[in-house]
Write a structure and sequence with these properties.
By secondary structure, the protein is an alpha+beta fold. The protein has four helices and two strands.
Length: 125
């Protein structure tokens, strides 16, 4: 490899290490976030009667990782006292199967390793 190309690669590596240090994000951080998503429980955002709790009553993990939601406009009350409200109609949650796959692919777990090496342990007679 040419010397100037090697210097460029070393510079890129140094900048990557600097960015990781600044953000304090590493493989463990990513794995912890994936585990948080995996442990999300829909029961945490619903009340006992099955209605959706107010957004601010949701656990932080739900507020942070919600992929999106559609709101519907509804009216409450009668005639002149009617008030327009907005209520969640659809909630888009993170893809739990994809999330579990990402956890399994984590470098320390290798749960979905493509190639499995085996060793012959039969005794030689």
């Amino acid at each position: 490899m040419r010397r100037d190309m090697q210097e460029v690669l070393e510079c890129i590596d140094a900048l990557k290490r600097e960015r990781i240090a600044q953000l304090n994000i590493d493989a463990s951080y990513v794995l912890l976030r994936l585990v948080e998503i995996d442990q999300m429980n829909a029961a945490d955002i619903f009340s006992a009667d099955g209605s959706l709790n107010p957004l601010m009553a949701w656990p932080a993990v739900w507020r942070c990782y919600l992929s999106g939601f559609d709101m519907t406009k509804m009216f409450e009350g009668r005639s002149d006292e009617r008030e327009k409200g907005r209520f969640p109609e659809k909630i888009k949650c993170p893809d739990k199967v994809k999330n579990l796959e990402l956890i399994g692919k984590h470098i320390n777990m290798q749960a979905f390793r493509d190639r499995i090496e085996t060793e012959d342990v039969t005794p030689n007679d």
